Amino acid sequence: MTKKAPPLARRQATRFSFKLLIIFCVSLSLCAFAFFKLHSQSELTSSTPYSRRRPRISLETFDGPPKIAFMFLARRELPLDFLWETFFEHGDVSNFSIYVHSAPGFVFDESTTRSHYFYGRQLSNSIQVLWGESSMIQAERLLLDAALEDPANQRFVLLSDRCVPLYNFNYVYNYVMGSPRSFVDSFLDVKEGRYNPKMSPKIPRERWRKGSQWITLIRSHAEVIADDEVVFPVFRKYCKRRPPVEARKGKLNFKLQKQHNCIPDEHYVPTLLAMHGLEGELERRTLTYTVWNETATKMENKGWHPMTFGYANASPERIREIKGINHIYYGTEYRTEWCRNNSTSAPCFLFARKFSQAAAMRLLSDDSVGGSEVSSSLDGHP
């Protein structure tokens, strides 16, 4: 027995329902495509595609002089606080602010520091920092985030607990505020295998940079770093220090030493700013002088480490030599950076590290950065 064909009305209803389903699916796809395109365009047109947005405060929106935020990255206490006491006491308190990232729970008061300028200046949300780990750049970001809360802060200087000023406050203030650029050491890293291909595509190889972690930033660049939510997680996952050689690991050491030896604090800031296309707004050099000990074993067990200035090598003659440096050569780029401040020739360095307490005391006793020189002669070039 043959089946009867469905009535005409039923066939028409089926076709109509099928057409409605097709129209619904097409409409849904178009809506999804439109939403994706709108979202993509908003990201492309954003001035900070790698960051969340923070309200930016310009010089016109607050009443008072612009300030420099001095941000100290400390292990615990500040061993050279007595030298910085002399530095800050010759400055106008309305021209600077101080922030310290120290060990969690450490408090700066009359029992832990010799300078009242540091009382209560520690961050309440500090973290435990390990050298060569992403916690180092997270601490820097916490300092920037805290300093950005004050709209008067228009320049941001990152310093170590062993840094010393080479000039008096007025000279440093005029130098830093006189430039519309950030001072960020940034150069191509072509010799070392620190770039991990797993970082791509979020961090392309052509944007990979290296430089000193001791930076001086204008406010807009500080916001880019503090607000970054894309590049930092990639660094935390893939930029790791190669483990040191240990005798108990035997032949495993050779395998471990083939890993990428990525030091986050030497790459994060210059790479992030390069990804934002901001290198044209930088003086691509640091303002902090460091002498490097270039000794290393075949497996880089020791590697390069900053030399510590002791009493003997912190003489007035040595300090004058550092102040007299007017250019820096970058071998990987065959580039000589002649040091300028707002297009005017200037000394390259305002600060130096690492200094022992004895060396810092000599700077004061020799009037290299203290005494009469702090209050007068350093207002101009040395």
TrEMBL record:
It is a single-pass type II membrane protein. Pfam families: Branch (PF02485). Signal peptide: none annotated. GO terms for cellular component: membrane. Its main location: membrane. The keyword Iron-sulfur does not apply. Keywords: Glycoprotein, Glycosyltransferase, Membrane, Transferase. It is found in: Membrane. InterPro entries: BC10-like (IPR044174), Glyco_trans_14 (IPR003406). One of its GO terms (molecular function) is glycosyltransferase activity. This is Core-2/I-branching beta-1,6-N-acetylglucosaminyltransferase family protein. It comes from Acacia crassicarpa.
